[in-house]
Amino acid sequence: MEQDNYICIDQDGNLLLSIDDIDEETLSVDPRFTHCLAVVKAGNDYLMGKNKWRNRFEIFGGCTEKGENARDCIIRECGEELGLDTANITYLGAMRYLLKPDYFSKTERIELGGLYGIKLPDMSLDELSGRIKDKEEITELALYSSIKDKEPIAMIDEKLLEYFE
Q: 34-45 pLDDT, tens per residue?
């Protein structure tokens, strides 16, 4: 059974099942494709954003909009959440999840998401915070090393940090 083999389970019972070697074009047309996430490296640390609605630190990204492919989605999301118009974005693979019923669906389901890595030039947190456009969603930025074991962090997102060294 698919639920018996997984990478990580989060606070809500959602399972990260695998990171699959599916190219961006194939991912973008899969009917299970719903979102993209980016692991952001700032120097030797990881940048995290505090999500206002979930009240925990997460990596960056979000749901696709109509007509978007995976790369378009992550570029738009990074523009909104980090003020990045262009970035050195590396595609890392397709995340496969078993998600519990939630705001988006009343049923348990399999979803796919694009996983990306971004390396930022050296900037202070103040400089980065000043670039955030979507302050309704991302209320605070922090480096992972400063919040680990001190602040709530999305468990699957924390595991995803390992995929972009």
A: 999 999 998 889
pLDDT of 103 above 90: no
Domains and CATH numbers, the chain: 2-163 (3.90.79.10)
Are the CB atoms for 100 and 117 separated by under 8 Å?
no
DSSP letter for each residue of 86-142: S--EEEEEEEEEEEPS-SS-SS-EEEEEEEEEEEEPS--HHHHHTT-S-TTTEEEEE
Q: What is the pLDDT of residues 56-81, one digit of tens each?
A: 999 999 999 999 999 999 999 988 88
The Cα-based distances of 109 to 3, 32, 99 in angstroms read 12, 9, 5
